[in-house]
# Entry
Amino acid sequence: MPLNPQTTRSLLQSLQHDPRKLLGQNFLVDGNIVRKSIAMADLKTGETVVEIGPGLGTLTRELLASGVKVHAVELDNNLQAHLRETLLKEHPGQFKLIAGDAVAYPLARIAPDCECKVVANLPYAISTPWMDALLNQPTLPKKMVLMLQKEAAERLIALPGSKHCGAVSILLRSAYSTGERHPVAASCFHPPPKVESCLITLDRLASPIRFPPAARQAMRAAFIYRRKQLRALCRKDPAVARLEHWLEDCIADGLNPQIRAEAIPLERWQTLPKYMDGTAC
# Structure
């Protein structure tokens, strides 16, 4: 059974562990949300699942009970020790624990060609850098079910034209379609966060579009000055200048010469990789 508020507090006390705000340690204490996460992931026995920040292991335990193999990455030393003494001993061969930073190991060091799913109560402070690192992996997860701060979710899945749209939004929406969303109350966590949360599902597209490092760097630079016209930025900022050939072709095809990065349609951004790999005419 998933941990409830009382058992979570008791376990934290026995471990002499105070939730660390810096690491986004808000522990899930609602069994219904744990079960909802697993249902949204549509798990099959034997699949490989990556979990980020397993913490006390309440979601991890239910994942293991579903028959999947879990590869988890945890940064906190105290929680690592707890997981080694419990789940690692109880599920040898089915549970693997990586000690480290999830941004450095976004898929818990699984094999580069391994097909996996991600089911995670993602520490809110790392949601954007973790997603950015994940989207640069050799093999993208076929499905993700993520618990996120509501505002972080809006930024990640925003489309061009939205004030939330950024470089990572373009990268994500070029590789994944968005599915079910489910609101999660603050009372579902211990300690309760001061922000709204939600579960989202992301399904890998049949032909995900990948952006090479040069394109990613130029896009990030462009969105730093999101309110400035992109054409002018190309002439002033060397980091953005790598977009100039692509942008001029877009303008020749009818794009507004005064357009800003956040207003460029997704399908236009998705033509950028061929300019960076030399295949554009």
Residues 213-276 form a domain with the Helicase, Ruva Protein; domain 3 fold (CATH 1.10.8). The CA atoms of residues 110 and 126 lie 20 Å apart.
